[in-house]
Amino acid sequence: MPFGLYEVSGGTYTLLAGLNIDDIVVEPAKAHGLLLPTSSTATLDDQGCLPPGVWSKLGVPWHLAESKIIEVIATHRLSGSTPSSLSSLKVVVNITPARPTVHLAEIKGVWGYTYTHWRGHGQYWIPVMLKLQSLWLDVPRSSLGIRGGVGLPTPFSAPPKPGRVHFEFFYITEIIRKKERKLTVALGSFNHPLLSGEALAYFTCVMRKELMNEPRPCGGLDICGCDQC
User: Fold this and answer.
1) Backbone angles phi, psi at 89, to 5 degrees
2) Do residues 151 and 1 lie in contact, with contact meaning Cβ atoms separated by under 8 Å?
3) I want to staple 199 with a disulfide (CB 3.0 to 4.6 A). Which of 67, 89, 113, 140 is the partner?
């Protein structure tokens, strides 16, 4: 999916820079010190359990607000041409780049869950959730000025009212290239992020709150069995 940093003025979105998923998730998370685990380096056993006596929490939840994401992107990608107000900047994604119709949405926030004890083959496994708010849904490419390729429209007009909210999931792994560690976002080739009960509970709580749904009493039966609701 192509992402772009846009400046919004007078109801018009103007593209300033093309982005990738690393720009939106990995670089801001690294800049705010959210990716590196801070607990014990103990690993799970073959049944996915922690050794006796080790802290029982499997991971650490974290959140990147839209403003923090944009601040890091502007610093790294707009050298010398940063707008006077960061509040005028938005990150937009074309969710359906290969289709004849376009689904454009703004990135409104990123949430992650760093598995502090997951060390399979020396890699981390960090599921990530993006909150997306639709701008234009199933609009013909030509009406937004997209002609060929999978590019992003510029400029384009803001919709008359905000669209529906959606959530997209990725995961972050640590890979080694040329003897240098580099964090990169990997899309699941065969599955979406594998979630433990703790991670699932965290993301479920976030979605409920972001959708302004009142949390239901869990009673030990609901998928949200945490104490964060």
Assistant:
1) -95, 145
2) no
3) 113
